[in-house]
Amino acid sequence: MGDEHERFISDESELKRIREKKLAALRERKATMTGGPVHLADSSFDETVKKHPVSLVDFWASWCGPCSALAPTIEELAREYDGKVLVGKLNVDENPRTAESFQVYSIPTIVIMKNGQEVDRLVGCVQKKVIVATLEKHLG
Predict the structure, then answer these.
(1) Closest Cα to residue 86, out of 128, 139, 49?
(2) What are 34-71's pLDDT values in tens digits?
């Protein structure tokens, strides 16, 4: 009975991983179709950002006031840079592994990536013009 129980638990975690990956892919597809930011997850983060030459990732949490203040700007950037830059959001409470791997200790944090590698970072609720200027440095 012990082996069957272990196999069942193993299968459960595998099913959960597959389910999370499929949900992340659906969210990405939906965001791409609506021109909004892509909601990223631990399970699909690397794969998603590596598909895009330039990515802007907003690390945030639902309880964070400055994150909420920055959200409309992230939405605007997603529409304005649609087709040029992956604009994504990663909830640090739901995806601690990725947040930790990027050493995100304060939120909001915006990480700009080229070919899956961090090239710049902004911390705090910064103005849109600062984000655009930082992003434009890496688009040329």
Answers:
(1) 49
(2) 579 999 999 999 999 999 999 999 999 999 999 999 99
Question: What CATH number is attached to the domain comprising 24?
Answer: 3.40.30.10
Catalytic, out of 40, 67, 99, 113? 67
The residues near 15 (Cβ < 8 Å, ≥ 6 apart) are none
**Cross-sheet strand order for the sheet of 109-114:** 38-40, 86-91, 54-60, 109-114, 117-123
| Owning domain of residue 20 | 2-137
Which is catalytic among the residues 24, 54, 57, 64?
64
Model pTM above 0.85:
no
Q: Is 64 marked active-site?
A: yes
* Contact indicator for 72, 87 with CB cutoff of 8 Å: no
Counted domains in the chain: 1
